[in-house]
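thread: overnight batch results

M.L. [08:02]
morning all. the overnight job finished for the chain we discussed friday. pasting input first so we're all looking at the same thing
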Amino acid sequence: MPQQGEILGRAIKMTGGDQVIVKCADGVTRQCRIRGKLKRRMWIREGDVVLVAPWDFDNGKADILWRYIRAHMEWLDANGYLKGI
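M.L. [08:03]
and the structure it wrote out:
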Protein backbone atom coordinates (compact mmCIF):
# COMPACT_ATOMS: atom_id res chain seq x y z
CA MET A 1 0.00 0.00 0.00
CA PRO A 2 1.33 3.46 -0.84
CA GLN A 3 2.48 5.50 2.15
CA GLN A 4 3.00 9.26 2.32
CA GLY A 5 5.05 10.35 -0.71
CA GLU A 6 4.69 7.05 -2.61
CA ILE A 7 2.72 6.33 -5.80
CA LEU A 8 1.68 3.19 -7.65
CA GLY A 9 2.75 2.87 -11.28
CA ARG A 10 3.09 0.45 -14.16
CA ALA A 11 6.43 -0.27 -15.83
CA ILE A 12 6.14 0.75 -19.48
CA LYS A 13 9.64 0.31 -20.86
CA MET A 14 12.98 -1.03 -19.69
CA THR A 15 15.66 1.40 -20.85
CA GLY A 16 18.69 -0.59 -19.73
CA GLY A 17 20.71 -1.04 -16.60
CA ASP A 18 18.60 -0.09 -13.62
CA GLN A 19 16.42 2.43 -15.50
CA VAL A 20 12.68 1.96 -16.14
CA ILE A 21 10.01 4.23 -17.62
CA VAL A 22 6.94 4.12 -15.31
CA LYS A 23 3.45 5.56 -15.86
CA CYS A 24 2.29 6.63 -12.42
CA ALA A 25 -1.24 6.85 -11.00
CA ASP A 26 -1.04 10.66 -10.85
CA GLY A 27 -0.74 10.80 -14.66
CA VAL A 28 2.99 11.58 -14.86
CA THR A 29 5.42 9.35 -16.76
CA ARG A 30 8.65 9.16 -14.78
CA GLN A 31 12.16 7.88 -15.40
CA CYS A 32 12.73 5.54 -12.46
CA ARG A 33 15.73 3.68 -11.16
CA ILE A 34 15.76 0.39 -9.33
CA ARG A 35 17.29 0.91 -5.91
CA GLY A 36 20.52 -0.94 -5.22
CA LYS A 37 18.87 -3.09 -2.56
CA LEU A 38 16.39 -4.47 -5.13
CA LYS A 39 18.61 -4.46 -8.20
CA ARG A 40 19.60 -8.14 -8.18
CA ARG A 41 16.89 -9.53 -5.91
CA MET A 42 13.79 -8.45 -7.79
CA TRP A 43 13.41 -8.60 -11.57
CA ILE A 44 11.04 -6.08 -13.12
CA ARG A 45 9.38 -6.59 -16.51
CA GLU A 46 7.19 -4.39 -18.69
CA GLY A 47 3.62 -4.35 -17.37
CA ASP A 48 4.55 -4.97 -13.73
CA VAL A 49 2.93 -2.80 -11.05
CA VAL A 50 5.53 -1.04 -8.93
CA LEU A 51 5.62 1.31 -5.96
CA VAL A 52 7.65 4.46 -6.65
CA ALA A 53 8.85 7.40 -4.57
CA PRO A 54 9.22 10.60 -6.63
CA TRP A 55 12.31 12.68 -6.00
CA ASP A 56 11.75 15.92 -4.07
CA PHE A 57 13.89 18.04 -6.39
CA ASP A 58 12.86 16.52 -9.76
CA ASN A 59 9.25 15.40 -10.22
CA GLY A 60 10.11 13.60 -13.49
CA LYS A 61 12.30 11.03 -11.74
CA ALA A 62 11.70 8.49 -8.99
CA ASP A 63 13.03 5.42 -7.20
CA ILE A 64 11.33 2.03 -7.47
CA LEU A 65 10.67 0.72 -3.96
CA TRP A 66 8.75 -2.50 -4.61
CA ARG A 67 7.30 -4.74 -7.34
CA TYR A 68 3.93 -6.36 -6.71
CA ILE A 69 3.33 -10.02 -7.61
CA ARG A 70 0.31 -11.05 -9.68
CA ALA A 71 -1.91 -11.90 -6.68
CA HIS A 72 -1.27 -8.47 -5.16
CA MET A 73 -1.89 -6.77 -8.53
CA GLU A 74 -5.27 -8.48 -8.76
CA TRP A 75 -6.15 -7.36 -5.22
CA LEU A 76 -5.08 -3.76 -5.95
CA ASP A 77 -7.15 -3.77 -9.15
CA ALA A 78 -10.23 -5.22 -7.41
CA ASN A 79 -10.05 -2.55 -4.70
CA GLY A 80 -9.65 0.35 -7.15
CA TYR A 81 -6.02 1.31 -6.55
CA LEU A 82 -4.97 0.81 -10.18
CA LYS A 83 -7.39 3.26 -11.82
CA GLY A 84 -5.52 5.48 -14.24
CA ILE A 85 -2.50 3.24 -14.82
